[in-house]
Amino acid sequence: MIQDSGPARFMTALLSAFFITSATFLPFVVKSTVASPLAIPQPNPYAGPEPRPLPNPQAGLPLVDGLYPDPEPCRGNCSWIHDPSIWYEDGTYWRFSTSGNIAVATAPSLGGPWRYEGALLQNGTSILVVDGQDIWAPSVTKRGDTYYCHYSVSRFGLQNSLIGVATSRSLEPGSWQDHGSVGLPLSHKYNLIDPFVFQETPGSPIFFTFGSFWQDIFQVELFPDDDITAFGDWAYQNGRIINIIRNDTKNALVVEGAIMYKEKDFYYLFYSVGHCCRTPETGLASDNQVYHVVVCRSETPKGPFYDRSGRSCLEANGGTTILASHGDVYAPGGQGVMVHPENGRTVMYYHYVRPSVGYGANDFFFGYNYLDWEDGWPVVAVA
């Protein structure tokens, strides 16, 4: 059994465009627990992403374009993939991704062939945030014999998102029970999307990470046996919601989708920075503002986190870029990190756009690369 370290995390670049003009971006503070709304099943937006051939299928080893290698080859259902979360169990890779009431796919290898299996929440979520909402950024983990899928409920341009959770004794679509909101309160400081659970051992504290834009990435430290389906009120009442990553420079880029990974003596936070989802029609971001993946590390899961140059990732806008646009790979992000169960190497997986295909939501592809470790820092490598 291999636990995914990702999840990683779909956030629209329309945030920036709407930030000044949209009333939904006004600070919204609620200093009490947010209860789950009444159960209102949401329709499945589509039957599931359909596999389609790539105009230029990847084959063989990835090519190196400048600093970064291309993604490893992917076969089958590899498009319309946002914010993937991977779990490996008994010879099968399970992939969970944004939209479609959390799209579920399986494959015999990380490179496929991937097959769409159905929606994780076949009747939608019991959380109602707003009409036209979607379910984003699933993150799957396992405790004992129960699987947990934390997810976000939101819509482009909203800050009053909520984080929910579903559980299952198997990973199969149709087996998941939705528990609604975990109870984290709304705040003007953060947006409740991009959840991630890290627990080093069954007896270790649980670190629940979330956040996008505003003051960026937050963390809740829980006790080893705490219920991760309903902890928000306790976390708020006990001052456990802590800011751990922030970029507060003028015109700061979006920071979101943090996941934690342990390698030897350090704890690494991988997260996405920049504008992920602009198109030529809406105006592509400038080169230095396009979505990319950065990393910071700490000697403890609680921080403080620093980048490779020694800058604080909370107080000095730190963050070391490890993957950015190159060649026909544009705006990589929504990443996760895991140990490859077949060869023991570290793998980072993510979504990305192929400009040769298009920039639409259905033009986001699943990609992955191996990571090597140089002087205690991850470097994207050719297989």
Automatic annotation (TrEMBL):
Family membership: Belongs to the glycosyl hydrolase 43 family.
Important for catalytic activity, responsible for pKa modulation of the active site Glu and correct orientation of both the proton donor and substrate, annotated site positions: D194
Keyword Hydrolase: yes
Residues annotated as the enzyme's active site: D83, E256
Keyword entries, A-Z: Glycosidase, Hydrolase
Highest taxon of the lineage: Eukaryota
Keyword Hydrolase applies: yes
Protein name: Arabinan endo-1,5-alpha-L-arabinosidase
Enzyme Commission no: 3.2.1.99
Pathway in which this enzyme or protein is active: Glycan metabolism; L-arabinan degradation
GO molecular function, one term: arabinan endo-1,5-alpha-L-arabinosidase activity
GO-annotated biological processes: arabinan catabolic process
Organism: Cochliobolus sativus (strain ND90Pr / ATCC 201652) (Common root rot and spot blotch fungus)
Catalyses which reaction(s): Endohydrolysis of (1->5)-alpha-arabinofuranosidic linkages in (1->5)-arabinans
